[in-house]
Amino acid sequence: MRAVTSEGRWCVVPPKKDPDASVSVPCFYGAELRYRREQAGLTLEQLVEGSFRGLSFLSQIERGERGMPIDLARHVDQKLGTDGFFERRCEDVAKARQVGHPLYFADVPDLEKQAVTLEEWGPNVIPGLLQTTAYMRGLIRYGSPWTPPKTVEERVHARMARAELWKREDRPAYWGILRESVIRNTPLPLGAMAEQLEHICEVIRSTQSILQIVPETTPWHALGHGMAKIMTFADAPPLVWTEGNFDGQIVDYPAQVKEYRRRYDLLRAVALSPEASLALLEEAARTCRNEAQQGD
């Protein structure tokens, strides 16, 4: 749907989708935001004007799909005359979204659910949506062994909850690319790694997704220094999620998103074909399984 802005320009307005306030704290927050906005007689465009945020971003907050940044909460309170309500409740919503995830990651699970396409590059570890519980626990055990058991289980539960996405009929189209070393070199027990590789093959085949492997014989390639997740949406511009050991960020600046897009396409070009990649995964899984059985 299109609308005219206050400057007389045409803009794309995200389709209206009534939030269910009972689903979660973020949904309650978003439903209250929409109610207060409509009571004030303001459109999305009028409320977001002057905030340096986009219509789609505000619409996603109203639907409980994105977190409210503190600067936007202050802007909304000022525009709606809500006496600091949305700023005060920002922290509560952030905590509700954070359970089992680092605070900087809180928006990503909701973005994955709303995406039309998901494209991932995993140069160092298997992407979260494809992980088994054993692999996830292994990452924590070797990377952060001082993590309290309760926190470990919260993280594992949150990671597995994200994987519920595969069961949806309207799930995003998925295309993943892994470096070969990710499936060859691991401190996990061979049986656990066999289970992990078999799980990837099952997910990719059963969901008609695509996975490619960049072989070790190709040491130089685009996006060599970090993971990237490219997401596209039906009613919002594409964005990229990148992550390091201790932080992550959403990249939505169009020129940067375009550069990630170009580099991801270069990765496709140097990777093995989808058929050859699955064959390699299956062979690696058999090798792990056989060696594990021989060691018993």
From TrEMBL:
Q: Mind telling me which SUPFAM superfamilies this protein's record contains?
A: lambda repressor-like DNA-binding domains
| Classification via InterPro entries | Cro/C1-type_HTH (IPR001387), DUF5753 (IPR043917), Lambda_DNA-bd_dom_sf (IPR010982)
Query: Where does the HTH cro/C1-type domain lie?
Result: 33-66
Tell me the protein's name.
Answer: Helix-turn-helix transcriptional regulator
Q: Which organism is it from?
A: Streptomyces coacervatus
Q: Mind giving the lineage of the organism this protein is from?
A: Bacteria, Bacillati, Actinomycetota, Actinomycetes, Kitasatosporales
